[in-house]
Amino acid sequence: MKNLTPIHTSSSRPARLAALKQSFQDWNNTQDAITRLCRRLSTTLSLENQLTILADEMSGTIPFDALNYRNRIARQDFVFATGMGGPHRCEYRLTLEGLPYGTLTLHRRQRFSDDELAGIEMMLSGAICHIRNACQFLTIEQAALTDALTGIGNKRALDEALQRASAMSNRHGYAWSLILCDLDHFKQINDHHGHVVGDHILARTAEKLEQALRNSDTVYRFGGEEFAILLPHTNEQEAREVADRIRNALESIRVDGGEIPLTVTASCGVAMHLTEESSEQWLARADEALYRAKAGGRNCTRVFASIS
Ligand SMILES: Nc1nc2c(ncn2[C@@H]2O[C@H](COP(=O)(O)OP(=O)(O)OP(=O)(O)O)[C@@H](O)[C@H]2O)c(=O)[nH]1
User: Fold this and answer.
1) Which pTM was predicted?
2) Which overall architecture, per CATH, does domain 24-144 show?
3) Does 225 qualify as catalytic in the annotation?
4) 180 lines ligand 1 (CB under 6 A)
5) Model confidence pLDDT, tens digit, residues 245-281
6) 225, 251, 259, 276: which one is catalytic?
7) Which is nearest to 178 in space by CA: 264, 306, 308?
C-alpha cells in the first residue's frame, strides 16, 4: 500500500484551499448550460431520469415539440418519449469510442436553424458519457435478472414480477394467473444424451413458450427445468387453456437425439392470485398444483382452484 505523507509534515496550503472553495462555489452556482446539465446528469444512473433531465435542460435553450430516444439494451427495446409530433426533425445516433448508445430524435413545427443544431450537438456531447454509463448500468441490471442459458427472466426477475403483480391485483382487483411448467423426466434426457442436449432443449423450450404467449405475458426460468408464466388479466380457467396450449407447443419440439428425434412433454400447475395473498403464498399454491400434475401422471395441467 502506498505510504501517505504524515499529516504533521505536510504544510497546509490556504491559497489552494481557498481556490478549491471558490471553484466549488462556481461549479455549484454556475448557470452555464453544459456544466448544469452534466451536474444534473451525474446525480442519476437511471436512463429514463437522465433523458428527462436532458429534455428539460435542452428545452431551456432550444425549444422543441417532442424528444424521442430508443435503444436496444440487453435484448429489450428501451423507448423514451416526451412531447408530441412536429413535422421537422433532427436525429442523432449516439456513439462513444465507436460503440452505439441509442438514437435521439427531436421534432418541431419549425425547422431547426444551423445554430440550434450546433447547440443540440454540444449538449449531446456533454451528455454522452452519462448516457453511456446509464446504458451500461441498465445492461448490468438486466443481466442480473436474466437467465444466461435461455435469455428469459430468472428467479430474481420472477420474484420481483410476482410481488408487483400481487400488489396490482390487491389494489385494482385484476385477475392475475401464474403457470408453473416443468419438463417431464428431464433427468433422463441429461443422463442419456448429455447436458449439452439438455441445455439445447431448455433453450428451445424458452423460445416456444415466448412464441406461444401474448406480448403482455412474461416467461421466467426459475429452476433447472422449471419455467413460470405470469398472465395479467387472466382467470384460472383461461390460464388452464393457456397451460394446455403451452404443453401442446412444447410437444412440437424436435431435437436431434440419434436414431429418432427427441421430444419432450411438460406438466403445468396453475393458480390465480387471491386477494391479500402474498407472492410467496401464490407461488406455493401454483407449486402445489404442479406437484399434483406430476403425481397425476405428468403431461397434464392441474389448477389450484380459488373456490373449493
Ligand atoms: N442440461 C441441463 N440440465 C439441468 C440444468 N439445471 C438442472 N438440470 C437437470 O434437470 C434435472 C431435473 O431432474 P428432476 O428434478 O429429477 O426432474 P425430472 O427428471 O424432470 O423429473 P420430473 O420433474 O419428476 O418429471 C436434473 O438432471 C438436473 O441436473 C441445466 O441448466 N441444464
Assistant:
1) 0.79
2) 2-Layer Sandwich (3.30)
3) yes
4) no
5) 999 999 999 998 878 899 999 999 999 999 889 999 9
6) 225
7) 306
